[in-house]
Design goal:
Elements: H1 7-18, H2 22-35, H3 43-63, E1 77-83, H4 89-96, E2 114-120, E3 123-129, H5 136-144, E4 147-151, H6 155-167, E5 173-177, H7 183-194, E6 196-201, E7 204-209, H8 214-221, H9 224-227, E8 231-238, E9 241-247, E10 258-262
Parallel strand pairs: 1-3, 1-4, 4-5
Antiparallel strand pairs: 2-3, 6-7, 8-9, 8-10
Length: 263
């Protein structure tokens, strides 16, 4: 038994014991590893869990005859859409991105995750539609995403979707959207929830976490920029007036700043 494990760990452990499918067990073992104590006393537990996980993954690969549907994160933020059958997930994906998913009045039209890319003022945000079959391997994408959109027609559906995420210990930030949504507002809400800000190199935007510094900005461009750094010029609009400041590596950037690094 783990030492000083959290209640969340024990809940995941209980679900693991009751899991029937290999995919469920894999997802729950990954969750247990994430929640397990990381101090010295928990080393044996972690080693045991990782051993079980490796064995199950090997067994699962040998059983599969079709393709896996692992999603590679692209862009600066990954957002999943979940909803009940015929809730309009594919329509939302089509409206917000250039993707062309199959859309019909029949339930379960989407058989695998569909992907599109939102262009938000030059910043790329990846949108992933999760099929309403709610298979564990598809729901696991939500666990590593930055945001999960809950497309709910009413309060009952919202609660059902939240309970589904809670069942699989998916703690990703949630954005609840009704069917009468405004596309521009959804993009704006995603951006606000992402915790990112836009910083520009002349006219090209770059997404950085809020409160990033010149050092963070320079490192994203090229590590040599830090090694050979002299100073940076930051163009910022303050009270309606544009100001240009000469700053160092520790200077904290704000959304909309235009930066030039001088080496």
């Amino acid at each position: 038994m783990p030492i000083n494990a959290t209640p969340e760990y024990y809940k995941a452990e209980e679900r693991y014991r009751n899991a029937k499918s290999t995919e469920e067990k894999i997802a729950l073992l990954e969750e247990m590893i994430r929640l397990a104590p990381k101090h010295k006393g928990g080393e044996h537990l972690l080693a045991s869990l990782r051993g079980k996980l490796a064995k199950l993954k090997k067994e699962n690969i040998s059983k599969k005859t079709g393709k896996s549907y692992g999603i590679t994160k692209e862009g600066d933020c990954q957002v999943c859409i979940i909803g009940m059958p015929n809730s309009g997930k594919s329509t939302m994906l089509k409206k917000l991105t250039s993707a062309k998913p199959a859309i019909s009045s029949y339930p379960f039209t989407t058989k695998k995750p569909e992907i599109g890319m939102i262009d938000y003022n030059g910043i790329k945000l990846q949108l992933v539609e999760i099929p309403s079959t709610f298979e564990v391997r598809f729901l696991s994408i939500c666990r590593t995403a930055d945001i999960v959109i809950l497309l709910a027609r009413n309060e009952s559906e919202k609660k059902e979707l939240q309970e589904l995420l809670d069942k699989w210990s998916i703690r990703t930030k949630q954005l609840v959207i009704r069917q009468d949504y405004n596309e521009a507002k959804i993009k704006s809400d995603i951006w606000k929830m992402s915790g990112l800000m836009s910083v520009y190199t002349k006219n090209t935007p770059m997404a950085l976490p809020a409160n990033s510094t010149i050092k963070d900005f320079a490192h994203r461009i090229h590590k040599d920029f830090i090694k050979n750094f002299r100073f940076a010029r930051v163009k910022r609009r303050i009270k309606g007036k544009e100001r240009i400041m000469q700053v160092g590596l520790d200077y904290v950037l704000e959304d909309g700043d235009v930066v030039e690094v001088v080496c």
